[in-house]
């Protein structure tokens, strides 16, 4: 484990992985998330700017939660978030459904190809623990 400075308060803390926030700032951020979630529940259809102004949470942080699929916009709008690949407005996540499907198909075709070297059993003596050649 390593020691890092918290991005929120600059205190030293024991970094385990994930966000670079100390436990105190991480808990405060989760409390803010609960406040934003409650505001959205009470004010359905509120824009990112409205939620930001009412809860005093930055629009950047709200958009980060939308990208992480923790929050979902009711309608894809220009002031919301856009697909990282094609740029069209989306409700949540990083990619639109069309780009997500295309990437899944591309990954699926790559996974079908053998990428690891295979052991060539024709070389060397097969008795006991002997070295083998990779082809």
Oligomer: single chain
Bin the helical content. Answer: 25-40%
Mean pLDDT across the residues is: 83
Order of helices and strands: EEHHHEEHEE
Largest sheet: 2 strands, antiparallel
Q: Helix count? A: 4
Q: In one word, what is the shape?
A: flat
How many beta-strand runs?
A: 6
Walk me through this protein's architecture.
The protein has 135 residues and is of the alpha+beta class. It is built from four helices and six strands. It has one domain (2-109). Helix 1 packs across helix 2.
Which tags fit this structure?
single chain; 135 residues; alpha+beta; two-stranded antiparallel sheet; two-stranded antiparallel ribbon; flat
Structure summarized in a few sentences:
With 135 residues, the chain is α+β, with helices and mostly antiparallel strands. The chain has 4 helices and 6 strands; from the N terminus they run ββαααββαββ. The chain is flat, with a radius of gyration of 24 Å.
Secondary structure blueprint with pairings:
Elements: E1 2-5, E2 12-15, H1 23-42, H2 48-55, H3 59-67, E3 81-82, E4 89-90, H4 97-111, E5 119-120, E6 133-134
Antiparallel strand pairs: 1-2, 3-4, 5-6
Helix pairs in contact: 1-2
């Amino acid at each position: 484990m390593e020691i890092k400075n918290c991005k929120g308060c600059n205190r030293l803390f024991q970094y385990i992985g994930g966000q670079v926030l100390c436990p105190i700032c991480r808990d405060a951020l989760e409390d803010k998330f609960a406040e934003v979630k409650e505001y959205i529940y009470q004010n359905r259809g509120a824009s990112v700017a409205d939620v930001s102004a009412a809860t005093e949470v930055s629009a950047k942080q709200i958009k980060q939660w939308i990208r992480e699929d923790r929050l979902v916009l009711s309608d894809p709008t220009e002031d919301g978030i856009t697909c990282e690949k094609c740029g069209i407005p989306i409700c949540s996540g990083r990619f639109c459904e069309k780009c997500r499907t295309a990437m899944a198909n591309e990954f699926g075709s790559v996974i079908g190809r053998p990428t690891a070297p295979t052991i060539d059993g024709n070389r060397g003596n097969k008795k006991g623990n002997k070295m083998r050649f990779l082809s």
